Each structure stands twice: as C-alpha cells, then as structure tokens.
What does this fold into?
Amino acid sequence: MQDIALKLGRIAMIGGGKMGEAIIAGLVNGALFDPDTVVVAEPEKSRRDYLETTYGIKAVAEGGMIRHPNTAIIAVKPQMLRDIAIGLRQESDFDPKRIISIAAGVTTQTLCELFEDTHVIRVMPNTPLMVGAGMSAVAVAEMTPRSEGDLACELFSMMGEAVLLDEAQLNAATAINGSGPAYFALFVRELTTAGIDVGLDPEQANKLAVQTLVGTSRYLELTGESPQHLMDIVTSPNGTTQAALESFAADGLGAIVKRAVEAAVRRAEELA
It folds into this structure.
C-alpha cells in the first residue's frame, strides 16, 4: 500500500460533502498522502474553510480550477454530475488519467461518454465509510484495465473494505452493502423498542442492541465463522435463543429479507 500515493498522484476531489470528506480523511489521516497533493472542489465557502482547516488540504470553488490532476474522484449527487462533467471538459488543464465516481446509479458507460479517453472506475460505497468502516463495491469500465479496479479497491480499503465486481453485479451488491446499513439500523431500532416493551430503560435498551450488533459483526469478521455456526453456539436446546429464533422462522423472516433485497435490486435497475 505504500506506493498507492504515487499511483494515484495529484488528486482532485469533486465534491466536499460528507462522503467526499470521508475519502479525504482516509487519504490524509492515513499519513500515506501529502495533503498538498489533494485538492477539493466545493462551492460552499464555509465548507471549503472547514475542509482546509481540518485536513490541511487546498479547497477551491470549482473543479476546473484544479490543474492537471492525475486522479479525479467524483463525489457529487447523480443529478449534478452531467453539468459538472460538461464544465470540467471545457477546461484544458483538467486532464486526469482516471475518473473514480461514487455517484449512485451512474453507469460506467455514461461516465465514459462524459469523460472520454480516461480510465473509468465506478464505486458504490456505503454510509459507514464516514467512520472508516465502509464496504465498497468497485467496477471498471469495459476498456479500463482491471488493475485500475484493484487500485480503487486499495484506496477504499483505507476506509473499510472493498471488493471488485463486474458492473452487472453492482445492483445486487448495492442491495446488500448500499442499503444494508438501513436494514441493520431498522433491526436495532426494533430490538431497542422490544427491549423497552419488556421493561428496559430506553438508553440501556439501545446500548444493548447497538453493541450486540457491533460485537457480532466483529466476531464474524475476526473468526471467519459462518453466521449459522455462531447461531448454533449461542442457541441452547429449549433455551431463550431457540424460542426467539423459532418465532422469527414462524413469521417468515428469511422470506421477508429475501423480498426486501429483491425489491432493492428491482428499484436499482429501474433507476439505472
């Protein structure tokens, strides 16, 4: 990972919102990137001032003001991307070797049309990226070398984990990693509410639910064990866990989750 800064070179971050900031933090706080090599384009002055003060980088009002970046990371809302791309194309000094886009739903084909003669990488991160625990799905355009996807995975692994997929798999992946934080948040909310209903203090119930989710995720990550194995360990015959799991099964939890994921995939396909 020590040469990733050399491979990415001078970085133009187009968009200094929450996700853009998360990437900047991953770049600068990891001590692998010189802040002088990272420039962010952000139209809001107060936001530019904050990013400069917090991360020691340079912030400008428009992407076209960033001269000769090697890598451009596009972190703007999808509906804004086309107009921004048209503006950037008019700047002869904006000539990156690669474009990495995190704009949801914008395909590599569209990106290639907007940014010609450039390696194009599409990344679908998720909200935990903002706390350095993201799960990002990466895909490259048809004419972009796989090595560029590997480089993007290396970059986003600095802010969590990343996996390289075929673009055709991104909608399915997004239904898991992109929407997944909301699924887990929903379960924590409902588990907290159930805890309150059986007599726990709201703050205690929430803490019990959140930390149990965090600990379970950590356990599965570090041990490499399957979820089923952990369920077997926790479940004693005729015990409390078995009673709860049987209740979930009777209500069709597996089918509920499957339908939810399928609904997310269908919606992603409609929006593409």
